[in-house]
What does this fold into?
Amino acid sequence: MDAIKTVDASTEEELEQAFQEKIDAETKIEPRDWMPAGYRKTLIRQMSQHAHSEVVGMLPEGNWLTRAPSLKRKAILMAKIQDEGGHGLYLYSATETLGISRDEMYEQLHSGKAKYSSIFNYPTLNWADIGAIGWLVDGAAITNQIALCRCSYGPYARAMVKVCKEESFHQRQGYEIMMVMAQGTPEQKAMAQDAINRWWWPSLMMFGPHDADSNRTTQSMTWKIKRTSNDELRQRFVDATVPQAQYLGLDVPDDKLAWNEDKKSYDWGEIDWDEFRDVVAGNGLCNRERLQTRRDAHDGGKWVRDAALAYATKQKKRAAERAA
Amino acid sequence: MTNSDTSAEFPLYEVFIRSKNGLHHKHVGSLHAADGEMALTNARDVYTRRSEGVSIWVVKASDMVSSNPDDRGAFYDPNDDKMYRHPTFYNIPDEVGHM
It folds into this structure.
């Protein structure tokens, strides 16, 4: 008995070593390849949360579908929301390749067991918020997702390539909304400023805790699930976004923000980590509402799924009758 | 791995898209649907929102037969020792020119 255990242990160790060698050689891992249980678990958690974020991300924008100021803006917003739904699907189907079922992931989301990006627990109060979400929230998401295109897990990396291609339109339409508002009446400009005031810091929080406080970062970097650290990605986003705010003539709500000529990058203040933890813990302004809306949407769609299944069953039966 | 009842889930379909005539269909992802027809329209809605394709195949994942990555060596090694299948196996004098 002991002998068998020893053999198993060394085999596991060998497999793990071979796995890490593949990772180090930049060979992608595909669904049916051997992988350590921890690698699978980490990916399932990260990818399903990513999928949930795409799906819940539709909710703050849905609020503005009927209120968007023109038919053009309504059509654009509808297209963006459809994309987010599609991105959720790409990610769910990539996660399913790891052995978790779609229903199980839905259950984790609806029961509150699984997290989604905290940014979607903030409310969308004025039309400029839709601009700020496209520009800042999608901008931050793209920064993160570009790094994930090189992730070691093949299906995740491929889904990210597809998502990044589509997200670019999201950010540009958001920035264009901000441009129109910032160049509009003083009231419109004030709305744009109000939006950036409320969305700037939550957008920076999207990159997660500081590297020093992120206990999963080291292992994820070794496995190349993550290719760039939270702080590095966050800095990249700040450096890219501040000049865009300046072009709009809007203030970034950070009095410590200053160009640092030596490091050719911006110095900036500190995130309110208490707020971050509070929203992650479920106490943000919209946590309960978002989750309830999501549950209602799922339950409300049940009759559609039932009808589809009944129709498919009937078609199959008729085909069988015709053949007989 | 799964504890929940997954038998109620719609079957999984793998989606393949030909981006333009002259190219192969290429795997792009998967989706759940009640039947093949619905899988096809769902695939159109999700995977070709920006004219990505001119032809779509959907295949029930349970109907696909695939090789096992663990057998990688054994499955392919009948071909590993047949170098004479490659053009570089043959020495042709330079005078003959390009062949």
Observations:
- Chain A touches chain B at residues 30, 32-34, 79, 82-83, 86, 89-90, 93-94, 96, 99-104, 107, 159, 162, 166, 305, 308-309, 311-312, 315-316 (CB under 8 Å).
- The radius of gyration of chain A is 23 Å.
